[in-house]
Amino acid sequence: MQAIFDHLSAIIVSAAVILILAATQIYAQRSNIEQTAAYATKTKALSFGAWLENDILSLGENFGTNRFRFEVPVSDSLGNTTEFAFYSDEYDPVADDTTRLTTRYQLELVGYVERDTVTTPVFQMNRDTGESPVTNGTAPPPATWVSDGRSFSTLSRFEISMLDRDGRITTDVERGDYIHVAFNMLPQFPVEPEYLRELYWSSTLKVRPFWDPPPGT
Amino acid sequence: MGQTLLAILALVLASLVSFNQQRNSISNYENMVQNEIEMAAAGTIMHILEFAGSRSYDDHSTPGVMYSRNYLPKYDDDFVALDAFGAADRGGSGCDLMQPFQTAQCNDVDDLDGLRAVPVNAELSTGQSLPFTVDIDVEYVMDREATQSSDESTLHKLVTVTAHSDYLPQGEVSIQRVVSYDPVKAELDYESVHGVLDGGGQPWGSGGDGDTCQEVFCG
């Protein structure tokens, strides 16, 4: 006991130094984890965005003119798009037949994240494809769907809307000249700050006209 | 005395390490938030650029002017001069960049020229939004690659959209895009207002520069 009191000042100083260094180390570690998570989220968001752009810009490939190439997006009460389907055709010159490829996005609720008093739903976007034969320009819905990758499970928002040429939101596929896509992505391993980090991505893509140009062009 | 000085030195060093780490953390947070805001701003600018391209290329290729002039522009000099860009033509309501239908008079690409500090919101989730201000410049360029600007009218216009926010890296992000004249789009724009051009529509006889017939419509 006497030894402790003899070196009381030294003990207090060394404890303070150790506490400061330990706290510094813990904060540095958390900051590094958060930075890595944010970088991974950004990379994933950019990849997911590129895939969506690729899908939407190539919808209607080899399709006949002046026909619906996509369905009206179905939304839930929060504005998230729960289902969106679009088509493209594949012609086999050897067999002389055409196959319609239908791509379908479906949004599935997989859980919730809570921060403070805010509860945020987390969704997974499932991308499925299905094939069906084309007869006289029409094809039945695919009999079976195959999961086709390009799916993410850390979305807190996923919206697809059709816009006409003047920027109005429309539910008429004949007037849908643009498709606006927006999603928010959460980190795969969210650390514990007071609020939830989200990455916001959006793009507007032209999908029409898909009519025959006039002769001479 | 010596031990006290050593203790003070140890505390000072530990405090400096801690202070430095805190500064790094704040810097990292700022960078992460700036990245997020930059991505949100880029999406909004893409929307603005896409709808800049959805407008008619020029005042002379808007459906109303084509109808009244009975002429589909075809050549470089069919389009307005640089001094007719911007406020000269876009009307008193200005240009709604996110919802073009709100400002019907802002109906061609060069109407956007000279817009300054236009407030724009990037819509996030649950009613949240990020406010930006946007500047837009439009100029004629010689080709699609925008290698050289032009004082004379051409078939290509370079649109530069710059978003400003205190939270963006360097305070702004800028994206450019070349919008080229497309007579097929001009025809589609015309048809959406004045009906189908299949022989029963506007005849497209003599044009503003004496053309007898626009080949895209003569078939």
Element layout with pairings:
The complex is a heterodimer of chains A (about 220) and B (about 220).
Chain A (H helix, E strand, L loop, with lengths): L1 H5 L1 H50 L16 E2 L5 E12 L4 E19 L2 E16 L12 E2 L4 E12 L5 E2 L7 E8 L13 E8 L11
Antiparallel strand pairs in A: 1-2, 2-3, 3-4, 4-5, 4-6, 6-7, 6-8, 8-9
Chain B lengths: L1 H53 L8 H7 L45 E9 L5 E13 L7 E2 L5 E9 L7 E9 L2 H12 L20 H4 L1
Helix pairs in contact in B: 2-3
Q: Would you kindly provide a brief summary of this structure?
A:
Chain A has 217 residues and is α+β, with helices and mostly antiparallel strands.
Detailed description of the structure:
The complex is a heterodimer of chains A (about 220) and B (about 220). Chain A has about 220 residues and is α+β, with helices and mostly antiparallel strands. Chain A is about 25% helix and about 35% strand. Chain A has helices at about 1-5, 10-55, and strands at about 75, 80-90, 95-115, 120-135, 145, 150-165, 170, 180-185, 200-205. In chain A, strands 1, 2, 3, 4, 5, 6, 7, 8 and 9 form a 9-stranded antiparallel beta sheet that branches. In chain A, strand 3 (about 95-115) and strand 4 (about 120-135) form a beta hairpin. Residues about 215 of chain A have low confidence and may be disordered. Chain B is about 35% helix and about 20% strand. Chain B has helices at about 1-55, 65-70, 185-195, 215-219; strands spanning about 115-125, 130-140, 150, 155-165, 170-180. In chain B, helix 2 (about 65-70) packs across helix 3 (about 185-195). The model of chain B is unreliable at about 205-219 (pLDDT under 50). At the A-B interface, helix 2, strand 8 and strand 9 of A face helix 1, helix 3 and helix 4 of B.
Average pLDDT over all residues of chain B? 84
What global shape of chain A is seen? elongated
Q: Tally the helices of chain A: what do you get?
A: 2
Low-confidence stretches of chain B: 205-219
Oligomer state of the chains in this structure = heterodimer
Query: How many strands in all of chain A?
Result: 9
The radius of gyration computed from the alpha-carbon positions of chain A, rounded to a whole number of angstroms, is 26 Å
Unreliable residue runs of chain A: 213-217
What series of H and E elements makes up the topology of chain B?
Answer: HHEEEEEHH
The two chains with the largest interface, and their residue counts, are: A-B, 47 and 49 residues
Shape of chain B: elongated
Please state the structural category of chain A.
Answer: alpha+beta
Sheet-strand content of chain B, in percent, reads 15-25%
Structural class of chain B: alpha+beta
Largest sheet: number of strands, sense, barrel closure of chain A = 9 strands, antiparallel
Question: What percent of the residues of chain A sit in helical stretches (DSSP H or I)?
Answer: 25-40%
Strand content of chain A: 35-45%
The amount of helix of chain B comes to 25-40%
**Count of distinct strands of chain B:** 5
